[in-house]
């Protein structure tokens, strides 16, 4: 006979999960971004929206240590007076990102950094769906004259070579097809480095985000230059 | 030295008082024995389950291959302590059939021979797991077959290996722990890992080492040893009982509750002992006075009455042990569904000895005051029927202090935690102090009440006569009742929140991340329309201009205001919502402005100290939005219903990016199939099946309620014994009063009506006080601890009050009957010697 | 209607102790007239208290009959006797037997209240004034001296204006001054109200004041049967 005591185990764990989910509170997602003071909003030369999942939202680090915040100060230090808006939603897949693209467009940004797909990969979601979603996002942004910086993602090897190579190929294919600036791998030099990641081995720590911004900065400059060139004739 | 004849002779005329005393002792010992034995059953069963759940006594967990120092330490323990070891690798992957099309995201658990160390993985074929799972073979969850349209014997491509499906999983003891993983489970043998080629650089896997110790009690010590060499921040060493401690915490809470009841019963029995022994000695005071007159020393008398007490205590202890054994033998019948019968051992000698020791300690403690009183009886009592045996105040206080210290030690011992025990003890003292104060207040009010009816007035007078134990009786009764009622109200509200409010057609399947435009496809997959809740992700930036502090929020024990919230929009209240502040969800007409309206749930309003009219600034994925709080809502039902902290009007958020959350009710048999259809049609949608949870939670609470009710019965019995004891203790006064009433012409009816009124007053005062205290305390516990809505059970209150009054009056009447029947002349003759 | 208020004929009372019959009263016939003051004397253990108890209906005789105010009370039940006692009899005891939970006034009022006399309070106040205790009427029993307690007890015995008062060694617990005061008070009140007083005592001094003395020895009447 099996013990009935295991029941509370299941039940309590599930209860917590359920109430957590129903409560609209995935407890692990504890991050927050401090918005610049709203009353006396400084004047910017332009707006960059960092769109993405928990890697953008900065899960597990303080809001001012997330990559959009670090990017903004790096740009300011380089004399580029851009505002970088963190539009990261933890746990989001490319389907979610696609469904909210209009909201991003409504903010009339000059450039959108598109970072999504990791959650698709971790759930083994079809790579074709990922491709389609990203393509739709890019097309919408381009159609609205918004610059796109696409950041690539690479999947962990345990998902199997078939899936992994199909996944990893999605981003270069898109970059070939669309006039976007392309950073091949968002976590270049950071992924799998114990010193640059949090305990869960997935999310970068503060040091990791510094490396990411360092890597990202040239691409942002490139994308902004491209944007300025495009804007000139107008 | 002790004259046995004297003791036996005194015992012979003890009668009802002696019996009450024996019953009190028996009750306290039976409760302790039964509960301690039940506690060890629960611990044993809990350990057993924890071992099965985690597959070992000590679990080493890492996201990287286990470091060499830790491996070395494990080897040491293996050879030194003779521990068994099993290695487990867990990771997600995408598998495909060898020949057909299609792929499936799965959770792979590669296990070494010997797994699981505790319990078993049950297979559909019924064959032993260890024999079936050989190299080259896989055992899969049934969904793997149905989703890929495969059969047993088909081959599956996992990484670069091709493995044969040999069986399906019927029951996987570790599954509850990994409920978060999204794919169905596949067991493979560690021998095939290399061929799969899925682990290595660039892969993400859980590396686990499970240890089974010859002595599971060593787990904590060994885990500590291993922790010291483990790589900090990377390798985690846990024991089965510390890991995932919700289960343990749950049972700790229950045992705490039961311990509370048993200590309470012990205290009540102690009071019962004291009052019945007082009554007994009072009856003997004539003998004692004569004894003193003819030269018996206090020492002689004390020794002999102490011997008498101990004799009664011993009889009670033996009766208690027997009762405990009988109660214990009914456990498999009563609690067989909670604890497997094979884990319920009989009462151990240890349990018995401990129960006896504590019980006898209680006897000594609570007998000391009445025995001490012997000293105060003077030979003059012969001449004058002096019924008030006075003991010096210091002695009384000293004994009260001793009782408190003893109980504190007992509480700490029973709860196995000094801090909790002391807090609990202080809480109890506070609780009793409050009841004491309330009682004094009520009695003062009653005393000032003008009463016309003669019998009623006599009843009042009788209650307030100097030296009467009215206040202590009411305090005791009210405490006992309020504890019982609190227990009942808690149980009622827990059941109401988790079970009753979860009717048969309540949602049992939840789906998350349904995108806009997927609603129709979702309904098609489910086969019916379903309620969809829009979810908009956003964050709270500031409250009334004050920015949310990330560091501070993350240290909060309750929910953090700094996390990403799921916002929603709708214009109406849900069925289980009520407005607690404000008129309606949103103001009816509002001038157009940049500030929108938001309705806030009371729980988060409390956390953030948010009130009506406050200005909240949200960030909806980058866009700031200022909202004014126009209402505060509360939920009336269970945690299993969806709820949202922040609700906006539809026009405010309809344009914002949102997904949908669906709550469905499906037939249990259809759930698996429906999930398959949903994930096939909408791969981005996640589902959560709570059908089993709900049913099992219901059964569980029902059974736990039974355990608690069972142990609560003991304190009810103790309460009755106290009442009897107190009537017996005032027996002489009652006989005297009765004789006086009759001599001046009162009829039996008149005397009885005084008894009824008096006891009715006692019962009513006690139950009203108890109800008030119970309502406040259960409300506090419900809202602060369990965080569920509190509802009053009017019926229970009325029944409690009626039963109490009936019991008090009944017991009062029955024990007064012999008094009332007595002819007054008997009393007079006795007076004249 | 005769002038006799209390008539007993051939009263006997026997106690069963172990297997043995122990006679306490034997063959007592006694008639008491209205307004008479009868003293029952005898040595300790002669049966005085038992005789008073049986005559007043507090105890039941083993044989013989008692007529109280022309009513045979021998066979009445305890609950039939109680209202009769309330109306017809007042008691004064050696040990006072006041209700300790009541104050002086309430003790006095009590019998009147039992028969729902609306004037209970007034009557009690007047009686306490009469015995000189109006200042102490709010005092609890335990706060009164022995003499005061007995005065309260006398008031209680008389509140319902009973035709018959039984007193059992009413001065037994008092010093000689108090004894004399209590006795004269009792007699004054008895005469004022024309009540009958049956008093048990072994005090010669009190016996001398009586209209008639009935002597008990070993449970038998040795003098004063007739008249």
UniProtKB/TrEMBL annotation, chain A:
MF annotations from Gene Ontology: phosphatidylcholine lysophospholipase activity
Alphabetized PROSITE patterns for the sequence: PROKAR_LIPOPROTEIN (PS51257)
Domain of life: Bacteria
Ranges where the SGNH hydrolase-type esterase domain occurs: 50-211
InterPro entries on file: Ester_Hydrolysis_Enzymes, SGNH_hydro, SGNH_hydro_sf
Protein name: Acyl-CoA thioesterase-1
Lineage per the UniProt record: Bacteria, Pseudomonadati, Thermodesulfobacteriota, Desulfobulbia, Desulfobulbales
Automatic annotation (TrEMBL), chain B:
The protein, known as: Putative ABC transport system permease protein
UniProt subcellular location: Cell membrane
InterPro entries cross-referenced by the UniProt entry: ABC3_permease_C (IPR003838), MacB_PCD (IPR025857), Membrane_comp_ABC_pdt (IPR038766)
Bilayer topology annotation: Multi-pass membrane protein
Location of the ABC3 transporter permease C-terminal domain: 260-377, 710-824
GO cellular component, as recorded: plasma membrane
Main localization of the protein described in the UniProt heading: membrane
Keywords: Cell membrane, Membrane, Transmembrane, Transmembrane helix
Tagged with keyword Zinc: no
Biological source species: Desulfofustis glycolicus DSM 9705
Ranges of residues in domain MacB-like periplasmic core: 21-227
TM annotation in the entry: 12-35, 254-281, 302-327, 333-350, 357-375, 395-412, 424-446, 473-494, 643-664, 707-728, 768-790, 797-820
UniProtKB/TrEMBL annotation, chain C:
Superkingdom of origin organism: Bacteria
Domain ABC transporter: 6-226
One term under GO cellular component: membrane protein complex
Keywords noted in UniProt: ATP-binding, Nucleotide-binding, Transport
InterPro entries: AAA+_ATPase, ABC_transporter-like_ATP-bd, ABC_transporter-like_CS, ABC_transpr_LolD-like, MacB-like_ATP-bd, P-loop_NTPase
Keyword Metal-binding assigned: no
GO MF annotation list: ATP binding; ATP hydrolysis activity; transmembrane transporter activity
Pfam short name (any one): ABC_tran
PANTHER family hit by this protein: IMPORT ATP-BINDING PROTEIN
Similarity remark: Belongs to the ABC transporter superfamily. Macrolide exporter (TC 3.A.1.122) family.
UniProt-recorded name of the protein: Putative ABC transport system ATP-binding protein
Native species: Desulfofustis glycolicus DSM 9705
């Amino acid at each position: 006979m099996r013990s009935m005591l295991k029941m509370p185990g299941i039940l309590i764990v599930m209860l917590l999960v359920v109430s957590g989910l129903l409560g609209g509170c995935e407890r692990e997602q504890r991050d927050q971004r401090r918005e610049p003071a709203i009353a006396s909003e400084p004047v910017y030369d332009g707006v960059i929206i960092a769109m993405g999942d928990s890697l953008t939202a900065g899960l597990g680090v303080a809001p001012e240590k997330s990559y959009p915040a670090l990017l903004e100060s790096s740009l300011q230090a380089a004399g580029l007076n851009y505002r970088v808006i963190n539009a990261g939603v933890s746990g989001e897949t490319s389907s979610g990102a696609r469904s909210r693209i209009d909201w991003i467009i409504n903010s009339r940004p000059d450039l959108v950094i598109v970072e999504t797909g990791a959650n698709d990969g971790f759930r083994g979601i079809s790579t074709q769906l990922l491709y389609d979603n990203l393509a739709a996002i890019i097309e919408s942004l381009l159609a609205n004259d918004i610059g796109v910086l696409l950041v690539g993602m690479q999947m962990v090897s345990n998902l199997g070579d078939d899936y992994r190579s199909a996944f990893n190929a999605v981003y270069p294919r898109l970059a070939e097809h669309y006039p976007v600036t392309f950073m091949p791998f968002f976590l270049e030099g950071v992924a799998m480095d114990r010193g640059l990641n949090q305990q869960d081995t997935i999310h970068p720590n503060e040091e990791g985000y510094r490396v990411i911004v360092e890597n990202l900065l040239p691409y942002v400059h490139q994308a902004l230059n491209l944007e300025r060139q495009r804007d000139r004739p107008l | 030295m002790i004259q046995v004849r004297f003791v036996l002779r005194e015992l012979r005329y003890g009668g009802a008082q002696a019996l009450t005393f024996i019953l009190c002792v028996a009750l306290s010992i039976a409760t302790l024995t039964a509960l301690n034995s039940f506690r060890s059953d629960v611990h044993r069963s809990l350990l057993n389950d924890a071992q099965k759940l985690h597959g070992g006594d000590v679990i080493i967990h890492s996201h990287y291959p286990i470091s060499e120092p830790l491996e070395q330490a494990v080897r040491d323990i293996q050879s030194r302590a003779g521990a068994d070891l099993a290695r487990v690798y867990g990771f997600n992957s995408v598998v495909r059939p060898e020949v057909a099309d299609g792929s499936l995201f799965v959770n792979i658990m590669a296990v070494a021979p010997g797994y699981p160390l505790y319990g078993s993985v049950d297979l559909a074929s019924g064959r032993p797991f260890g024999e079936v799972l050989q190299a080259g073979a896989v055992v899969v969850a049934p969904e793997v077959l149905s989703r890929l349209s495969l059969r047993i014997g088909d081959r599956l491509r996992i990484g670069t290996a091709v493995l044969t499906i040999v069986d399906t999983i019927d029951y996987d003891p570790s599954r509850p722990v990994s409920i978060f993983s999204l794919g169905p489970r596949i067991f493979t043998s560690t021998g095939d890992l290399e061929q799969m080629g899925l682990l290595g650089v660039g892969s993400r896997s859980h590396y686990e080492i499970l240890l089974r110790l010859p002595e599971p009690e060593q787990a904590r010590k060994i885990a500590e040893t291993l922790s010291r060499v483990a790589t900090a921040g990377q390798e985690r060493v846990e024991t089965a009982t510390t890991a995932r401690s919700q289960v343990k915490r749950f049972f700790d809470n229950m045992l705490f509750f039961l311990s509370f009841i048993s200590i309470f019963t012990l205290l009540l029995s102690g009071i019962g002992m004291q009052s019945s022994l007082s009554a007994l000695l009072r009856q003997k005071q004539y003998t004692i006075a004569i004894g003193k007159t003819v030269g018996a020393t206090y020492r002689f008398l004390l020794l002999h009455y102490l011997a008498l007490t101990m004799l009664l205590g011993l009889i009670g202890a033996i009766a208690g042990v027997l009762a405990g054994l009988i109660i214990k033998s009914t456990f498999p019948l009563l609690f067989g569904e909670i604890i497997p019968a094979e884990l319920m051992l009989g009462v151990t000698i240890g349990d018995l000895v401990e129960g006896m020791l504590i019980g006898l300690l209680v006897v000594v403690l609570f007998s000391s005051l009445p025995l001490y009183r012997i000293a105060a009886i003077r030979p003059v009592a012969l001449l004058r029927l002096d019924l008030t045996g006075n003991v010096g105040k210091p002695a009384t206080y000293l004994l009260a202090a001793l009782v408190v210290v003893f109980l504190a030690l007992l509480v700490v011992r029973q709860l196995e935690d000094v801090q909790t025990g002391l807090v609990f003890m202080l809480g109890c003292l506070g609780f009793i102090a409050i009841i004491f104060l309330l009682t004094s207040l009520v009695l003062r009010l009653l005393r000032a009440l003008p009463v016309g009816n003669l019998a009623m007035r006599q009843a009042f007078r009788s209650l307030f006569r100097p030296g009467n134990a009215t206040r202590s009786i009411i305090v005791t009764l009210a405490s006992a009742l309020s504890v019982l009622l609190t227990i009942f109200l808690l149980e009622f509200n827990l059941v109401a929140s988790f079970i009753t409010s979860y009717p048969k057609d309540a949602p049992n399947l939840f789906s998350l991340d349904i995108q806009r435009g997927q609603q129709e496809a979702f309904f098609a997959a489910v086969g019916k329309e379903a309620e969809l809740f829009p979810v908009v992700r956003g964050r709270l930036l500031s409250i009334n201009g004050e920015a949310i502090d990330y560091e501070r929020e993350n240290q909060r024990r309750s929910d953090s205001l700094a996390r990403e919230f799921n916002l929603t929009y709708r214009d109406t209240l849900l069925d289980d919502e009520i407005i607690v502040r404000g008129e309606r969800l949103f103001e009816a007409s509002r001038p157009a402005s940049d500030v929108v309206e938001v309705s806030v749930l009371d729980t988060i309003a409390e956390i953030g100290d948010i009130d009506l009219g406050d200005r909240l600034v949200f960030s909806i994925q980058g866009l700031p939005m200022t909202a004014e709080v126009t209402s505060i809502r509360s939920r009336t039902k269970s945690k299993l219903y969806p709820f949202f902290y922040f609700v906006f009007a539809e026009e405010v958020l309809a344009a914002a990016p949102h997904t949908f959350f669906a709550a469905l009710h499906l037939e249990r048999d259809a759930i698996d199939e429906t999930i398959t259809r949903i994930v096939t049609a909408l791969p981005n949608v996640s589902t959560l099946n709570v059908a089993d949870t709900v049913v099992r939670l219901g059964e569980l609470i029902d059974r736990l309620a039974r355990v608690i009710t069972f142990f609560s019965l003991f304190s009810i019995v103790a309460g009755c014994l106290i009442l009897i004891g107190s009537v017996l203790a005032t027996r002489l006064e009652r006989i005297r009063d009765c004789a006086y009433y009759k001599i001046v012409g009162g009829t039996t009816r008149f005397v009885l009506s005084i008894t009824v009124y008096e006891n009715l007053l006692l019962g009513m005062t006690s139950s009203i006080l108890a109800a008030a205290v119970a309502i406040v305390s259960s409300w506090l516990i419900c809202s602060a601890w369990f965080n569920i809505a509190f509802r009053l059970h009017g019926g229970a209150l009325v029944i409690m009050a009626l039963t109490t009054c009936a019991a008090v009056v009944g017991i009062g009447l029955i024990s007064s009957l012999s008094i009332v029947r007595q002819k007054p002349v008997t009393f007079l003759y006795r007076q004249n010697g | 209607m005769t002038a006799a208020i209390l008539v007993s004929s051939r009263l006997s009372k026997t106690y069963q102790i172990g297997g043995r019959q122990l006679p306490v009263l034997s063959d007592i016939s006694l008639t008491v007239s209205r307004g008479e003051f009868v003293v029952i004397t005898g040595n300790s253990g002669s049966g005085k208290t038992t005789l008073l108890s049986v005559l007043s209906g507090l105890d039941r005789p083993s044989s013989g009959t008692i007529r109280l105010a022309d009513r045979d009370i021998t066979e009445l039940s305890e609950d039939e006797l109680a209202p009769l006692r309330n109306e017809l009899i007042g008691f004064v005891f050696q040990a006072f037997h006041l209700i300790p939970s009541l104050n002086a006034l309430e003790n006095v009022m009590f019998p009147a209240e039992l028969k729902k006399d609306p004037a209970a309070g007034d009557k009690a106040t007047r009686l306490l004034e009469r015995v000189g205790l109006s200042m102490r009427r709010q005092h609890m029993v335990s706060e009164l001296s022995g003499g005061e307690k007995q005065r309260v007890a006398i008031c209680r015995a008389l509140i319902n204006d009973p035709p018959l008062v039984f007193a059992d060694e009413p001065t037994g617990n008092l010093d000689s001054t108090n004894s004399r005061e209590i006795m004269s008070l009792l007699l004054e009140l008895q005469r004022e109200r024309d009540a009958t007083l049956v008093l048990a005592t072994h005090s010669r001094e009190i016996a001398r004041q009586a209209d008639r003395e009935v002597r008990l020895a070993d449970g038998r009447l040795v003098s004063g049967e007739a008249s």
